[in-house]
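User: Is it possible to get a 3D structure for a protein together with its bound compound? The compound here is manganese (II) ion. I've pasted both below.
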Amino acid sequence: MNSKLSHQLPVRISVEVQEALHNKQAVVALESTLITHGLPYPLNVETALAMEAGVRESGAVPATIAVLKGEITVGISAADVERLGSMESGRVRKCSRRDLPIAVGLREDAATTVAGTMIAAHMAGIEVFATGGIGGVHRGAPFDVSADLIELGRTPVAVVCSGAKSILDLPLTLEVLETQGVPVVGLGTDTLPAFYTRSSGLPIDVRVETPEEVALIIQGAQRLQAQHGILITVPVPAADELDASVAEAAIQQATADAATQGIHGKAVTPFVLGRVAALTGGESKRANTSLLVNNARTGGKIAVALKALG
Ligand code: PSU
Ligand code: MN
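Assistant: Yes, that's possible. Here is the predicted structure of the complex:
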């Protein structure tokens, strides 16, 4: 039922996504680490499916990406979203660039991060990808730089997100994006959104007001044959924003807990996300799901506008 991208690449594209790409329809990639490591079950599955519906509302086709039995799969089924989402997160490999050969080689079921999803989206010919927050430079551990930032510097996909959680060092994260040559665009904002809250107060490269203007910037990169990504930031809808002091207190507590418990490497982000969710309860979940669905819808509008430019 799925068809292979080529005889060489271990990439499968669903029939719906293949047809959309073939017919030059707008397609939006969605990641799977937020399903396996970012949100608790069953909220993760509900949110992933609501994001797919959000992309469709804007007239685009969603392509949720994961590794299934060692094949990078672009456009996984709702049954696979449910299966991955209900697995214990410790049992699913979180795949950034360096993890993909392991998951593919050992024929694993695995989730793709922002970096992993960008790689797969680009292989499939998808130009726009929507998610919640990207990885960045960790607070107090400036050598822990997410591979997401490096991938943005080397893979031409536009990533729609609500900035990054302030579990990260946001000023250093912006510095690395600059070094990597990644434009940071604000759709309706002139500062970097801080995930739960609409603004970090940190200025970014440009503010635009419409998906059409974002599409023009993506087209600009394509005309330049740029080999890097673009970060499109969209603040959480105002009604669902978390109180900044509540978010900050939870983040400080969660970061301190990670340090005392000796959590490091790729386990840091999932640990801190889980602690923050536990400490802030329902409010953070509402902000989180609201911005995810809003970003999916916005990604759909941008992808449609990009196709309209021809
Ligand atoms: N930030 C969030 N939610 C998430 C992630 C980040 O608010 O689910 C996930 C994304 O998949 C991202 C990854 O690519 O964590 C970054 O992990 P690391 O810091 O290990 O690079
Ligand atoms: Mn990290």
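Residues 11 and 72 are 5 Å apart (CA to CA). The chain has twelve helices and 14 strands.
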